[in-house]
Amino acid sequence: MGNFQGGLSLTPSSSRNLCSRHRPSLSEESDPANKARPEQSSCPAERPTEAPKYSRIKNWQTGSILYDTLSAQAIQETPCQEKRGCCMGSVMFPKQLFATSEGPRGKEGLLGLARSFIHLYYSSMKRSESQAHLQRLQEVEQQIAETGTYQLQEAELIFGAKHAWRNAARCVGRIQWNKLQVLDARDCTNAQEMFTSICSHINYATNRGNLRSAITIFPKRIAGRGDFRIWNQQLIRYAGYKQPDGAVLGDPASVEVTELCIQYGWRPPYGRFDVLPLLLQAPGEDPEVFPLPAELVLEVPISHPTLKCFEEMALRWYALPAVANMLLEIGGLEFPAAPFSGWYVGFEIGMRDFCDSQRYNLLQELAERMGLDTGTTLSLWKDKAAVEMNVAVLHSFQLAKVTIVDHHAVAESFMKHLENEQRMRGGCPGDWVWLVPPISGSLTPIFHQELLNYQLTPCFRYQTDPWKSYIPKGTTVTRRKTFREIANAVKISAKLMGHVMARRVKATILYASETGKSQAYAMNLQQLFKCTFAPQVLCMSDYDVVSLEHETLVLVVTSTFGNGDPPENGEGFAKALMEMSCPYLEATEPEMQKSYKMRFNSISQSDPSVALWRKKRRESSNTDSAGSLGTLRFSVFGLGSRAYLHFCAFAHAVDTRLEELGGERIFPMGEGDELCGQEESFCTWAKGVFQAACETFCVESQAETAASEVFTHRRTWKRNRHRLLPHPGSLDLLAGLTHVHKRKIFPCHLLSVKNLQSPESSRSTILVQLQTEDQPEMRYQPGDHVGIFPANSRELVEDLLARVEDPPPTEEAMAVETLEAGTEGVKRLWVPVQRLPPCTLRQALTFFLDITTPPSPQLLQILATLAEDPGERDKLQRLGQDSLLYEEWKWFRCPTMVEVLEEFPSVPLPASLLLTQLPLLQARYYSMSSSPDAHPGQIHLTVAVLNYHSQDGKGPLHHGVCSSWLAGLAPGEMVPAFIRSAPSFHLPQDPTAPCILVGPGTGIAPFRSFWQQRLHDIEVKGLPPGEMTLVFGCRSSCHDHIYKEEIQQAQSKGALSQVLTGFSRDPDYPKTYVQDLLRMQLDSYVSEVLLRRAGHMYVCGDVTMATGVMQTVQQILAKGGQMTLTEAGDKISELRDQNRYHEDLFGLTFRTQEVASRIRSQSFTCQRRMLLPEP
């Protein structure tokens, strides 16, 4: 980064200048062909009334011409414009770059700058003239009218600080302006708090030598109140002691500040490289002296790879360059104390600090030690010694593993930055005098590049040294602090430093979930991060993606729905995130232009471009461009099932996209497999990401202890912390479900239930017909899903009620309250638990709580604390703590809550435990089996009624919750439901496009809605029938061929052009699966439809079948399209991306036991790898 000014010594790097008024290329109207329309990038106080004239600038090395249109937005005249006929380009501190010392601006001047800045901010997010923009503008105008000032929101502050760096014409290292970490210290009230914040800044920015750019912003300037000021020029600088003979021991540039520090109580050691204390001043107070803790200041001893004389010189320099005395201006507001830091360009130390005659002036001493002839300039001894000094500095910093950059690399990076800015903003302000390095000038490309020097806002400004106008309080000289007082102040700050840094770091936790599990994990993560950070939890649907540009730490917890899609409440976030552009990450490979579905839902589940891009990212340096999310640190946890082909695909998409946009992954993405150890995987990831966050932001915390306290607390349930109270009124079921699941639920009523299979069949598939009363919210399209909220079995509910030790009155609605943990001196209070609506215990167990899913390890540990039998207590504890043992037990027994209590009969069961610890009963999703045009006001479902024995077929009989409930309903009974749109599984917009439908068993469900819709279009709308081929599979032709007659009728009327059926367990037919039908009877037709006729293929069923179908199609396309299997796989990914290869998948069923066992075994292997330490 160099630093924000190109030279921390605050001196220019060259004496040559090309000012815009006297450059050879005259200002002229730009050619529209040569100018890009830039984004608005500054806040002009006044807009030009005439058509602007754009300056042409030339690169004399390449001959290329640029037209700078951004300069039209400059906020004031340059020094050269004021002194007509004179070039002022080499003046060190022209008054135009100084802030006024007359206090804040008046209302009118402030209002104009504030409006321009707010417009710039919202324009950058493409939200200009939006309701949020206009509302914010109104707020700012009102604040200024009432108070004479206004308050920047945190995101605006971050945006403004980054753009101040971006606009700094004297900084050569601006290419990483988007990686500036903004530390908001506007709540500071005194010098002690300032010092603590500065210590946190130094600790964070130093980062054990891997320097990070940062700025700490203290309170703004307010009329009638003094300023917060840092009297030092830099946060870290060596002292300078004037000797009686006029010589200086140490750094001559620090003599004045050194004397002030001594005056205010510092006891100097009088060495050559003594780190100065800080002189900090709060409004209305005298400055106070604060020595920096030695462990906070990283120093680098200077050595040379070959010259031993450097060891004799005993030189050293501090690692962190941090400018402390400049003023930050954002939207007309002024921040007199806003120290910022980056990293050094080698010449700043080697040339300026060590070799300038007004600094350490070591050039001649080094030349003499090198044996150079210093008696004549013809020997070029100065040049030779200067080069070796620079070599020594670069060598030493690299040896110490401290960030530094050489002048050639930083010059190249500026040229890249100039190119980026020309493309993005139409120009880039640059002070040629400061940007050309003081060594090897013409060997760097900046030397040959004409530049325009102009000032934009937000910006940094110089300001007058505070001691030159400061009058001490009272009439006497300020009392010098004692050494003990100073030491105590430092000790207090060192103790508070980590806490202050944590308080400044906000963590945003985003989740997306279909079942609520991701949300629960996100809330757990919030509890963990509360120990040290300031976390907030947001659903992706409630989050504006553009806010990512101003975030510091983002943690994402998300599941993946269906065929690698985002959950419903993450769809908008996914679309916006994938559409975010990063101008500095141009795709060099076509792969990088693919959508995330194509890249992450591919057959191989990998994207070669991602690996190549990550390799390039690892090889990048501080002179490379930062992405739009340059300051973002993130980590992602994905929930899913390895039964699905694209396991955690959406989470992987988010993880990679955040990195592509410039974010820094602080901890590897975590994966939680519902087939094996999902809870343990989350806990492991949560502990790891918490530890990584603490290390990243230099926060001291015992991650293991904090995580143990949080996760152990969740497992601790105490009777005396919960109580049930009677509640008047009765339950409104729909309102209760809406409250619990945070979505609107609508009533449907059962019309009929019909068994579709033969009476001789041991299994049952039913056609469920529901009446929607034509509610607008229940309208749907063929291919959509309906969510059903079922009720638990009455028998299970009664069995569980019989085990409750303290059952409340049967028909009395109850509300749950918990005893809130009180803080010191505050009485603990009983507060309502909002998880469930007030209802009877029977209603809670029937409609709201899941009593059939095996209890989680956490719930088993709670039960262990209640168990009265020691043997049962021990087994419950082992099940709750050993994830592999738990998974074996859960998979073999798959116990309901009742069966768990039968296995552990000594466990008493309090009612409040059930109401607070059982998971929520989730909706079940079914594909529509009807066309709304053919059956208006109705929804038809095809439902397999699930019945199975656990324990390898020898255990108790289990029933599917929703399928059994639907099968037992009587006509007229209410069914709570909602519609979930599935746009990726809708019929083609072109009704003539050929379609191939593949669906064995109940996978035929959505295709019934397809042929009904086509039949309606033919018979009612008179549309010509398009080709629609149905590929169906079932076990037996006699027992399982559901919808046989309806299919034949649809085919006879032209809705289905071809029907193929395979039977897998029929003695009269060869064993045939749908994959076999595709391969043996439809191979050429599949290739023709997908490769040459822009047709569609739809696949519906369980994931194992879908995997087999896709592999078969891959082989067919490879053969028919004369391509490799890899190319065929890419083609399927492309078809999916084009919404022409559609999948509607559901997970493992107990009819695929052998496949489930295999997948689960793979999950165990992955789990062991994650839990066992690396050798």
Can you walk me through this structure?
The protein has 1175 residues and is of the alpha/beta class. Helix content is 36%, strand content 15%. The strands form twelve sheets. Strands 19, 20, 21, 22, 23 and 24 form a six-stranded parallel beta sheet that branches. Strand 36 (995-998), helix 30 (1005-1021) and strand 37 form a beta-alpha-beta unit. The radius of gyration is 36 Å and the shape is elongated.
Going by CATH, the homologous superfamily of the largest domain would be Nitric Oxide Synthase, Chain A, domain 1
* Number of beta strands: 40
Shape call: elongated
Computed CA radius of gyration, to the nearest angstrom: 36 Å
* CATH arch. level architecture of the largest domain: Alpha-Beta Complex
Write a concise keyword list for the protein shown above:
single chain; 1175 residues; alpha/beta; Nitric Oxide Synthase, Chain A, domain 1; Rossmann fold; NADPH-cytochrome p450 Reductase, Chain A, domain 3; 4 domains; 6-stranded parallel beta sheet; 6-stranded antiparallel beta sheet; 36 helices; elongated; disordered N terminus; disordered C terminus
